[in-house]
Amino acid sequence: MSCIFCDILEGKRDGHILYDDESHVAFLDKYPIDVGHSLVIPRKHHERITDMDAEDVGHLFSIVPKIANAILTSTEADAFSLAQNNGRAAKQIVPHVHIHIIPRYNSKGTVWTKRQISSDAELMELSEKVRSLLI
Ligand SMILES: [Zn+2]
Fold first, then answer.
1. Looking at 16, 24, 96, 98, which residue is catalytic?
2. pLDDT digit string (tens) for 58-116?
3. Phi first, then psi: what are they for 40, rounded to 5°?
4. How do 24-28 and 38-42 pair as beta strands?
5. Domain region containing 63
């Protein structure tokens, strides 16, 4: 079965990569709820978090704070939300475990904005900024 995220990991599909280590990759969401919306994924394909070893789940979550900090610094967001959906009824669209990091902005209020389509140039600039903070 093909998986969009595995394709990004294998370089078959472009992704605006923010961070990677031997077990994880973080990249910008192509259809962000707000500027800086990013995904952190394990390299190993699992559909749900309940399919993973507890230790691997711990590792996955342990890298979220440093990535979130770099995103907040780069976007000047005021806050962020984390989301992790498992299964279609939970609105998991890509069946590869991922944690959403969604920056929130005081100026935009608390209502969830609709997903938007960012330009490649915009995503490129932001991903370079975040990546430079994570090196
Ligand atoms: Zn996958």
1. 98
2. 999 999 999 999 999 999 999 999 999 999 999 999 999 999 999 999 988 767 767 77
3. -115, 125
4. antiparallel
5. 4-134
Q: What is the CATH number of the domain that holds 45?
A: 3.30.428.10
Instruction: Note residues around ion ligand 1 (Cβ under 5 angstroms).
Output: 3, 5-6, 45, 96
Supply the pLDDT for residue 5. 97
Tokens at 58, concatenated = 């711990």
Residue 135 makes CB contacts below 8 A (sequence gap 6+) with none
Count of domains observed in the chain = 1
For the packed helices 64-75 and 120-134, what is the interaxial angle rounded to 10 degrees? Answer: 120
Whether residue 96 lies in the annotated active site: no
* pTM greater than 0.70: yes
